[in-house]
Design a protein that fits this description.
By secondary structure, the chain is an alpha+beta fold. It contains three helices and seven strands; from the N terminus they run βαβββαβββα. The protein has a single domain, classed as Quinone Oxidoreductase, Chain A, domain 1, CATH 3.90.180.10. Helices cover 16% and strands 20% of the residues. The strands form two sheets. A five-stranded antiparallel sheet has the order 6-1-2-3-7, with no helix packed on it. It has a two-stranded antiparallel ribbon with strand order 4-5. The longest helix has 13 residues. It is globular and about 50 Å long.
């Protein structure tokens, strides 16, 4: 449970809070950051990794309104606290108490994962649960493009291996 140490273990089914959902994981990808963590051992010992996933909601907390049992979903693995000076100042990416699925809290490379409902997104019916595991990497690419000065029809160079060119 450290550098180059991965184990398959039985873990208890998570209990959810009033504003959380329990998701039965259908698929979970392995991100480049997961591979790096495996090589360096830089994640919390005993943590379940995985943040590129899809699944079906199995249980919802009593305060959850916009989601329901049976919804096909994915989740945002980066969850700012929404209380610190950076979050309140409109800069949640600098959050002082950021939680990250599969990095600081148990991730989705398991049978069930729990998330705050605010971090869960319904999937369109035409998107397969398998392909939905690529929503997170696609969001990263789109965010980078939105931050850039690229315009439609510009030529660009994508350098590197993998779907993100990393």
């Amino acid at each position: 449970m450290g550098q180059e140490d991965v184990r398959v273990l039985d873990v208890p089914k998570p209990s959810i809070g009033p504003e959380e959902v329990l998701i039965k994981v259908a698929y979970c990808g392995i991100c480049g950051s997961d591979v790096t963590a495996y090589k360096t051992g830089n994640y919390v010992t005993g943590l379940v990794i995985g943040h590129e996933f899809s699944g079906i909601i199995e249980e919802i907390g009593p305060n959850v309104e916009r989601l329901k049992v049976g919804d096909r979903v994915t989740g945002n693995g980066v969850m700012p606290c929404c209380r610190c000076k950076f979050c309140l100042g409109g800069r949640p990416s600098l959050c002082e108490s950021m939680e990250m699925l599969g990095v600081t809290i148990d991730g989705a490379l398991t049978e069930y994962v729990k998330l705050p409902a605010s971090a869960v997104y319904k999937l369109p019916n035409e998107l397969s649960l398998l392909h939905a595991t690529l929503v997170d990497p696609l969001a990263c690419v789109l965010h980078a493009i939105n931050l850039s000065s690229f315009k439609p029809m510009n030529s660009v160079l994508i350098q590197g291996a993998g779907p993100l060119g990393s």
